[in-house]
Amino acid sequence: MKKLSNKVGICRLQLLLLVLCLPLMSIGQEVGSMERLVSPEIADDNTVTFRIKAPKAEKVVLSGNWMPSVPIEGGMGMTRQTVELTKDENGVWSITVGPLEPELYGYTFVVDDVNTLDTANLMVARDGTFRTENVLYIPGAASELYWAKTGPKGTVHKIWYESPTLELTRRMFVYTPPGYEDSNENYPVLYLLHGGGGDEEAWSTLGVANHILDNLINSGKAEPMIVVMTNGNPTQAAAITVSPKIKPSDQPAGGMANMLFEKSLVNDVIPYVESHFQVKANKENRALTGLSMGGLQTLNTSFENPELFDYIGVMSMGFADLSRFGIEVDHSKRGKQIDALKAADPELYWIACGTDDFLYQSVVDMRNELDKHDFEYTYRESTGGHTWSNWRIYLSEFAPMLFK
Amino acid sequence: MKKLSNKVGICRLQLLLLVLCLPLMSIGQEVGSMERLVSPEIADDNTVTFRIKAPKAEKVVLSGNWMPSVPIEGGMGMTRQTVELTKDENGVWSITVGPLEPELYGYTFVVDDVNTLDTANLMVARDGTFRTENVLYIPGAASELYWAKTGPKGTVHKIWYESPTLELTRRMFVYTPPGYEDSNENYPVLYLLHGGGGDEEAWSTLGVANHILDNLINSGKAEPMIVVMTNGNPTQAAAITVSPKIKPSDQPAGGMANMLFEKSLVNDVIPYVESHFQVKANKENRALTGLSMGGLQTLNTSFENPELFDYIGVMSMGFADLSRFGIEVDHSKRGKQIDALKAADPELYWIACGTDDFLYQSVVDMRNELDKHDFEYTYRESTGGHTWSNWRIYLSEFAPMLFK
Fold this sequence. Notes:
The structure is a homodimer.
Chain A (H helix, E strand, L loop, with lengths): L11 H10 L19 E2 L5 E6 L6 E5 L4 E3 L6 E3 L2 E2 L1 E2 L4 E6 L5 E9 L2 E3 L7 E4 L3 E8 L16 E9 L4 E9 L12 E5 L8 H4 L3 H10 L7 E4 L30 H17 L9 E6 L1 H12 L6 E5 L15 H14 L3 E7 L5 H13 L5 E5 L5 H11 L6
Parallel strand pairs in A: 15-16, 15-17, 17-18, 18-19, 19-20
Antiparallel strand pairs in A: 1-2, 2-8, 3-6, 3-9, 4-5, 7-8, 9-10, 9-12, 11-12, 13-14, 14-16
Helix pairs in contact in A: 4-5
């Protein structure tokens, strides 16, 4: 009997599926030998083994977002550390890493300097306009909110709505909580904004917002609520996945400067949601939060509309100087805006940032400015940086504080 | 000024996004030079240029599903032809192919025998348990139904429902047509089943069913209808994308034999849809179709429940001998089933198959058997084989015949 040294296997159904789909098979799949590598393989102790077949390669490395960042030569920024795989006699490269902490990770291989997905792992996520990566889920207490557990589930509605402000029919995702379909009750609403480079798909893919909300609601930690996930790029109708004509370069250079998204959120999105869903349409039952670019949009929207939201969360963004990108803040206006928002007395103003975040200083500056005005806020400082790992944690902590 | 020979470019917003996301950058991206390859690049004449940077590679080929299939050495099946790219002095490999016919294509690179996605192209689709590929959309008359055009759009609901039959909380996608949210009318329902290896995500990704329906309905070619896209693997709660614990090997060897999915469709799915959506709940307003394994499930369900559907479509499946996979058909029963379905007199029984489909003979056998019983059906024979290209065409032709 052949030794399955590379963790290969085939079951009867796979054989049938193979037969039903043979004409579709692409090159590179091992049809002849019926073998399929197992990668990644998570052991009971949370060590993880990665494998890729590349007989001709001279060097294969693994780039995972759990690895520390290191400066890039030339000073343009940071990149990830990598680890080298080793090759066996069949041309299969492998490495065992960890144990890894429970979390949702992204990784790719780099085969002779070419970024390469793990074809044995069908869990793939697009990180906005930046890249596509494989997804690795390590179960455990710290990540237990991040996947579809047993129990009631909410619905994610992929909706198109009219935006007169932007002169577009646009797409957004609306999460309704477990039981919504069978209820006559009205629900509060959280508006949840993504960051630069992202789109309306970000929070339900990398952000797993629907799983986080399902699990928080099912365990009684968060109130049942509707969550609205918009596309924050004002010239984009929808993510690139539905409109091949949407290229990254179609995103507006002034997308953050012109306040157009913020206007469409207030004038188009909120009225649509409040007229098409079972919604408690008042300040006490509206929350707004966003990360990075979405944090800036949260700041802008809540300063311009102090009476709209009782719960405001700013993630990984502060009073940053973005003037070199053409984004000017009217500082004479800001003091009055802070006072107006203070007068509106929101139930919660929450600020979250990681100590390694490159925007950390902008958050310090914002807090200093708010302090000058005796503006009340709650500050949550985490470890780590400008990462989805932090944004998932922030959502997991922010949602339970809402509508109580 | 530097000659942009490799079609690289960066705009101001991309620079800003880069700055906002630098800590996330992964290795392999050309942060230092701020360059991003353009690939694929579609010219006005529909020739397409593909590019990948792989300085150390000895051979790079392109594998696209528009290329003909060729037998694999050893006789185990077919694979695709490939074409070789050529390398320039910067290590960028490229090739221009076509012109290509308007269509939605899948492709990958193979770099020194390693399947590699085009990292410059963020449009990626998972083909069930088989692979992940890049998507290439060539616009034109033949593919005009396949993307989100201007105009009203339906909603795709990602729903979880209880399946007592399968003892699972399961996921399905339900498409509601443009205007549904603002209407008090009831709508007919099409139940749309995927093939072996697929799941509930197949018809709205590779099948672009929501775009096809939006465009057919907006142009008046199809009646407004609800479309229900289930997961046909009876031990799966949901696609692997939401449940990392779902592995391909968790699919049941007997999934097609045990009729469990068919029972859950009738006992769980249809009652859920008819009690939670604005539905015309009668035979005249129910349609069922599926491809390959879903075609078998369509045959089984309509034979077992002759009074349930007035519109039945069987795509790329016939009376196939699947006994070597443990799937036994009771032939003594079949004649009676055909007669019972004939007595129920469905409005449309539609059979579609490609001349190159490996199941073509099973469709010939089915038609012969139906003919023996003077059973009325419409037969649509296309060119091509067992492909999503054909299944998109079949849906585009089947939907306009329904509910009229």
